[in-house]
Amino acid sequence: MPLEFNISEKQATVQRVELSGRLDTLTAPQLDRALDDVPPDTRMLIFDMTALDYISSAGIRSIFKATKSVQRNGGRAGVLNMQPQIRKVFDIVKAMPDVPIFRNDEEMDEYLDAMQKKIIDGGDLS
């Protein structure tokens, strides 16, 4: 499933990004370009992941890149409504932010893909 997204202004200086489908190597550049247009006076950038089914390392980079951009301008970012497999990816990244354990992006994406499939199939990876 391709990535679909909608960026809308909820209030002055609050932007909401609704994501659905897959945020991966092929679709992350599309989101990056759209997020480049977020106004610099944005004080809150909210990523709604209710319908996001999959995220790869490229997707994580897109989220972090947008978050850092908003923070540089004095704003904040938040994520809501994560599916369990997406939450697990964020937990893994948060647990080891500076520990390089993968040889390359492909190896990391293979691991994240397998982990998300297990959760979707009802497995518990805690």
Keywords:
globular; four-stranded mixed sheet; 126 residues; alpha/beta; 4 strands; Transcription Regulator spoIIAA
Quick recap:
It is built from 4 helices and 4 strands, in the order ββαβαβαα. It is an alpha/beta fold and 126 residues long.
Give structural notes.
There is one protein chain. By secondary structure, the chain is an alpha/beta fold. The chain has one domain (4-120): Transcription Regulator spoIIAA, CATH 3.30.750.24. The protein contains four helices and four strands. It has helices at residues 28-35, 57-72, 84-95, 105-120, and strands at residues 4-11, 14-23, 44-55, 76-80. Strands 1-2-3-4 form a four-stranded mixed sheet. Helix 1 links the parallel strand 2 (14-23) and strand 3. Helix 1 (28-35) packs parallel to helix 2 (57-72) and helix 3 (84-95) packs across helix 4 (105-120). It starts with a strand and ends in a 6-residue tail after the last helix. The mean pLDDT is 84.
Itemize the secondary structure elements and their pairings.
Elements: E1 4-11, E2 14-23, H1 28-35, E3 44-55, H2 57-72, E4 76-80, H3 84-95, H4 105-120
Parallel strand pairs: 2-3, 3-4
Antiparallel strand pairs: 1-2
Spatial separation of the terminal alpha carbons: 27 Å
Strand order of the biggest β-sheet = 1-2-3-4
Q: Proportion of β residues?
A: 25-35%
Given helix and strand content, the structural type is alpha/beta
Please name the fourth-level CATH homologous superfamily: STAS domain
Highest-level CATH class: Alpha Beta
List low-confidence stretches: none
CATH architecture classification: 2-Layer Sandwich
Q: Profile the largest sheet.
A: 4 strands, mixed
Shape annotation: globular
Counting DSSP E segments of at least 2 residues, the number of strands comes to 4
Individual helix count: 4
Helical fraction equals: 40-55%
SSE sequence, one letter per element: EEHEHEHH
CATH topology annotation:
Transcription Regulator spoIIAA
Q: Provide the domain count.
A: 1
| Average of per-residue pLDDT values | 84
